[in-house]
Amino acid sequence: MFFYILLFIVIFLFTIVEESVHSKAKKRIAFIMFSILACVSGFRYLGGTDLELYETIYNRIPVIFSKDFKDVFYNVDYFFWEPGYLLYISFFKTTINLSFFGYIFINAIIFYLFLYKGHSRYTVHWGLLLMFFMYKLMFYETFVAMRQSLSIACFWLIMHYVEERKPIHYVLLCFALVFSTHNSGVIMFLVYILNYVKLTKERFLMIGLVMIPFIFFSSVLNNMIGGFMALLSADKAGYASGGETQNIFYTLEYYLVWVLVYFNYDAIVKKNSHALFVIKLFLVILPCVTIMRDIVILRRVMDYFYLSVPILLGYICDAKPKLKPLIILGLSIVCFYGYTRYLMNFDDGGFIPYISWLALPGATFFN
Q1: How far is it, in rounded angstroms, from Cα 21 to Cα 30?
Q2: CA proximity to 123, closest of 8, 241, 268
Q3: If DSSP codes are grouped into helix, strand and coil, which group holds residue 302?
Q4: What is residue 309's three-state secondary structure?
C-alpha cells in the first residue's frame, strides 16, 4: 500500500508545482507525471484472471495476415474478441516480436500518449486530470481491461472531430479504432448527436434537477432491463445488471461538480472556447450516476467521459483564480480517498502489493 500512497503523493506534489509555473514548464512537468504513470501501468503484473486470459490470447495469436490468422475469425476460442484488438496484438507480436510483457509496456505507452494527445486540446491542468484519472480510471483501465482501455484511448484521440463537426472523419475512425477494439465503443457513434444539443445555463440546470428524483428508481430500471436480458441470455443479464448498486458517493460527487459548473457556467464558457463541448460530455455521465446507476454496462461507458470532470474544474480555476486553491485541495482529498478505497476494495485488495513483471523469473521484453 505504501507504494501506491507514495505514487499519489508524488503526483499531488507535481500538481502543486505545475499550477505555479509558466506554460513551457507545465509541459515538462506533465511529461514527468505521464512517464511515471506509464511505467507503473506498463511494468505491472496485476489484473487477476483477466490478465491471465489476455496473456493466453496474446501467446496464441497467429502471425498477422497469415492463413492461420484469417482462421482466427472463425475460431470459437476467439469468438468474443474484437477483430481490431486481435489485429493490434498480432501486429506487435509479429513485427516487433514483443513478448506479452513487452506488449504490456508498449501498450501502456500508447495509452498515455493518446490520453495526452486527446486532451491537450482541452486542458493545461494535467495534475488535476491525472489525480482524477488515478482515482477513477487507472486501476481498471490500465491494470485490468486491456481492450476497453484501448477503445477509450482511441475515442479520446478522435473526439475533437465531434467538436469540429466532421462526421465522416469521426464515424470512420470510430468504427476503425474505437468499436473494432471493444464493443462498448458502439455507443460512441451516438456522441456526434451532441452537436445538435442546444445547451444553455438554464437547460443545464433543468437537466440536472430533473434527474435527481430518478436516483431512487434506478433499481427498478435495473430489474426491468435485467429481466429483459435474461429472456435472451443469462450471461447478458449479468452483464447488463450485475446486482451491485453503485455507491451513492459517486452520485454526490458528480452533483458537487455539477453545482460548481452551474454557478460558474457563464464565466467558463466565456473564458474557454471548448467549455460548451466539455460540459456536454460531462452531462453524458449524468444518467449513469442517477437513473441508470445500477446498470453495470453503463459504468463502463462512463470511463469514456469521466475526464470531463477535472477539465471543467480546471476551467473554473482559470475563470475564478480565487477558487483554485480550494478546488485543488478538495479534488486532492476526494481523489485520495476514492483511490485508496478502490485499492482496498477491488478484488479484496488484489492490487496490493504492487507486483512488477520485471521481478518475474524468465520475464523478457522480446520473445
Answers
A1: 12
A2: 268
A3: helix
A4: helix
Strand, coil or helix: 189: helix
286, 238 Cβ separation under 8 angstroms = no
The type of residue at 13 is L
Amino acid letter for position 11:
I
CA distance 272 to 270: 6
The helix/strand/coil state of 366 is strand
DSSP state for residue 292 in the 8-state scheme: T
Question: What residues have CB less than 8 Å from 211, skipping those under 6 apart?
Answer: 286, 287, 290, 291
What is the tens place of the pLDDT at every residue in 236-281?
444 554 445 578 899 999 999 999 999 999 999 999 999 999 999 9
Q: How far apart are CA 282 and CA 132, in angstroms?
A: 14
Q: Of 213, 301, 319, 336, which Cα lies nearest the Cα of 261? A: 319
Q: What CA–CA distance (Å, rounded) separates 344 from 5?
A: 12
Residue 182, sorted as left (phi over 0), alpha (psi -120 to 50) or beta, turns out to be beta
Q: Which cell numbers in the block locate residue 16?
A: 502543486
Decide if 148 contacts 179 (C-beta within 8 A). Answer: no
Report the distance separating Cα 181 and Cα 178, nearest Å.
6
- Cell readout for 322 is 480565487
- Residue 227: how many CA atoms within 13 Å on its side-chain side? 6
pLDDT of residue 243: 45
Helix, coil or strand: residue 365? coil
In whole angstroms, give the CA distance from residue 90 to residue 62: 7
Which residues does 222 contact at the CB level (< 8 Å), separation at least 6? 241, 292, 294, 295
pLDDT for position 132: 98
Question: 98 and 92 in contact (C-beta within 8 Å)?
Answer: yes
